[in-house]
Amino acid sequence: MENKEKEEKKNTEEIKEQNKKVEKPKKEKKEKVDKEKEALKEKNAELNDKLLRISAEMQNMKRRYDEQISKIRLYDGEDVIKDLLQTVDNFERALMVDESKLSDELSKFLSGFKMIYTNLVKILEAKGVKEIECEGKEFDPNSMQAVLTDKVEDVPSNHVTEVLQKGYKYNDKVIRPAMVKVNE
Predict the structure, then answer these.
(1) Residue 46 has pLDDT above 60, yes or no
(2) Closest by CA position to 167, among listed 156, 155, 176
(3) Cα–Cα 20 to 30 A to 154, which of 67, 101, 123, 143?
(4) Is residue 26 very low, low, confident or very high in pLDDT (cuts 50, 70, 90)?
(5) Strand partners, 181
(6) CA-CA distance, 139 to 158, in Å (whole number)?
(7) Mean pLDDT calculated for residue range 88-110
């Protein structure tokens, strides 16, 4: 019987030994799986963060693009309007002629000029072009350009005494500052 007990004891020890060998890889495998699982969670969090950042950047790009398109549309035609302002100036100089000294034929010609000038000004106003009012107002460097200074006692200091060339705004943007004479 002793042999049998010894043999059973030996078998039990062998089984325990085998169980330890099986459990050890299971623990190692579980630890490895847990590490991989943790690494995947970190990678997932990192990718989610990256996705949120890219999404926010795309929204910002779309907003900036929409703002740029809006500005382009708002000031579309600015170059043409600037060129037309020179023509308006020429009309105004031509209309300064004293009609009383003109013949009937030239007087009719001048009245045609007035009609063209009036229509041109109305069209520009309809498109959002406005003259900058400056006569007698305080000098504003954002919309006026001081070309000369003057010394007039009746006018307060730093106020416009004379407009040498009209200034214009297009949709609240100064496209040509007024050239003015300012009181010292």
Answers:
(1) yes
(2) 176
(3) 143
(4) low
(5) 148, 162
(6) 6
(7) 84
Structure tokens at 80: 């043409």
144 neighbors 157 (Cβ within 8 angstroms): no
pLDDT at 107: 81
| DSSP label of 112 | H
- Going through 57-155 in order, the beta strands assigned E by DSSP cover 129-131, 144-150
Collapsing DSSP to helix, strand or coil, 159 comes out as strand
Average pLDDT over residues 18-34: 70
Show Cβ contacts of residue 168 under 8 Å, excluding neighbours closer than 6 positions.
81, 85, 129, 130, 131, 132, 174, 175, 176
Q: In angstroms, what is the C-alpha Rg of the chain?
A: 44
Question: Which tens digit of pLDDT belongs to each residue from 118-173?
Answer: 999 999 999 999 999 999 899 999 999 999 998 888 888 899 999 999 999 998 89
Strands 178-183 and 144-150: parallel
Asked if 162 and 144 count as a contact pair (C-beta separation under 8 A), the reply is no
Cα–Cα distances (Å) from 120 to 124, 177, 180, in that order, read 6, 20, 24
Q: How many whole angstroms separate alpha carbon 7 and alpha carbon 174? A: 107
d(CA 92, CA 114): 9
